[in-house]
């Protein structure tokens, strides 16, 4: 299969820690996926989708440097393979196992590459990966806002987290390619913009607008501007560490996944403080900024909006985002996919997972009783209407996706060299 356009949804496996590392905000658990995983995969098929952003819970699967519990992953991925659903595998989503600590740990990149290699060997039919989800957001929320994981608030911690997250992402890509040479990597990264509220805020806004690119600049081996180079070196990155990113990037294996929500645009005041701006530029304008910088194929990897009192707010947002996707594509950007994130409602995202309230957020295509929402109906209709049309618009723009049923002569969901007695592998 050469996919002309990828319609997807996601089942969120966020698992940051809060409360000094004592509380694990496990979205798979909060949203009932461990109990309803088969039903959730039914719902993906009910929508007419064949691609799913999905990954096993890192903190439950990765028990030590070479110790893994594959029990849940084996069940889930065998079922995805049987259904011929292609997962975009999300290996690390905002949190690490307790034994790693947090993203300040300098051993994390090499250790994580080992986990990625073990996953790729066990599920060799998997081709699409997001090794580390939203590296920039993960670093900002953990080390500048003080919300997750490290719960720090300083630039040195931010630079440390960014360099470890991006290095881990790069080393994981190299490790996966040794197992699956045709692997494709879809970075899911938040696309942001900072608006100056006054002339005195222009400097802080420019600083933020330069810093928003750091994760992708390092990941794609793009030289940062001089202000950002000084910022990185002033906050603990060495010249040798910087040169690693210039020399080891795998840009040619990548699709730039970009995420856009109403919360992605910010006002900046003269003192550098930021606050939500709502949608000002919108998806199309900001996506062009990122595309012009990296010149890679683009996939819209996340968006959603809460179903409000009118019942049609999320439907309106879906239509608006889809219009933006078509605008970007018609402007000549190789935009290859769209994702409503996520499949079901989410829990505690109203506080950005920084408070364990158990608040259900009506953001999904289905509610937590697995009943379809109006936006789910609208998305199903959108997919049905557009999936047959878009590939013919650009027959050259096709992604070499190998669906699970097309992989190999004999399909197996486990590494033939892996022990078969029990789920815990040492």
TrEMBL record:
- Keyword vocabulary terms for this entry: Hydrolase
Write down the Pfam families for this protein, in alphabetical order: Glyco_hydro_1
Keyword hit for Hydrolase = yes
The protein's GO terms of the molecular function aspect are: hydrolase activity, hydrolyzing O-glycosyl compounds
Kindly give the InterPro entries that the UniProt entry links to this protein. Answer: GH, Glyco_hydro_1, Glycosyl_Hydrolase_39
Entry keyword Hydrolase: yes
**Gene3D superfamilies recorded for this chain?**
Glycosidases
One BP term from GO: carbohydrate metabolic process
Q: Which domain of life is it from?
A: Bacteria
Please give the name of this protein: Glycoside hydrolase family 1 protein
């Amino acid at each position: 299969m050469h996919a002309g356009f990828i319609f997807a949804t996601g089942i969120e496996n966020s698992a940051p820690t809060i409360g000094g590392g004592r509380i694990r905000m496990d979205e798979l658990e909060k949203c009932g996926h461990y109990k309803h995983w088969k039903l959730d995969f039914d719902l993906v098929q009910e929508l007419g989708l064949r691609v799913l952003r999905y990954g096993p819970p890192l903190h439950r699967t990765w028990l030590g440097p070479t110790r893994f519990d594959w029990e849940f992953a084996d069940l889930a991925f065998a079922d995805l393979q049987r259904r011929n659903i292609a997962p975009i595998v999300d290996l690390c989503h905002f949190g690490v196992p307790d034994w790693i600590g947090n993203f300040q740990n300098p051993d994390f990149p090499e250790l994580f590459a080992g986990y990625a290699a073990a996953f790729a060997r066990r599920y060799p039919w998997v081709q699409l990966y997001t090794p580390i989800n939203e590296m920039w957001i993960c670093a900002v929320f953990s080390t500048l806002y003080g919300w997750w994981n490290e719960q720090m608030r300083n630039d040195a911690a931010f630079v440390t987290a960014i360099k470890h997250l991006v290095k881990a992402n790069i080393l994981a890509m190299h490790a996966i390619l040794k197992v699956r040479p045709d692997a494709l990597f879809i970075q899911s990264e938040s696309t942001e913009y900072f608006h100056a509220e006054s002339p005195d805020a222009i400097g802080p806004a420019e600083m933020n607008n330069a810093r928003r690119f750091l994760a992708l600049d390092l990941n794609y081996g793009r030289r940062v501007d001089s202000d950002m180079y000084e910022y990185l070196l002033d906050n603990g990155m060495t010249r040798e560490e910087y040169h690693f990113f210039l020399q080891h990037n795998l840009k040619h294996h990548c699709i730039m996944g970009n995420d856009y929500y109403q919360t992605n645009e910010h006002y900046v005041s003269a003192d550098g403080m930021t606050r939500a701006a709502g949608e000002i530029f919108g998806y199309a304008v900001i996506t062009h900024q990122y595309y012009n910088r990296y010149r890679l194929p683009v996939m819209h990897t996340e968006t959603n909006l809460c179903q409000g009192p009118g019942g049609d707010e999320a439907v309106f947002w879906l239509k608006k985002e889809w219009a933006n996707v078509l605008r970007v594509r018609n402007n000549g950007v190789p935009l290859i996919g769209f994702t409503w994130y996520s499949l079901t409602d989410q829990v505690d995202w109203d506080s950005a997972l920084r408070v364990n309230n158990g608040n259900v957020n009506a953001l999904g295509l289905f509610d937590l009783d697995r009943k379809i929402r109006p936006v789910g109906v609208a998305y199903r209709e959108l997919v049905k209407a557009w999936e047959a049309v878009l590939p013919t618009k650009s027959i050259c723009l096709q992604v070499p996706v190998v669906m699970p049923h097309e992989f190999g002569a004999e399909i197996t969901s486990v590494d033939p060299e892996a022990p078969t007695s029990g789920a815990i592998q040492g």
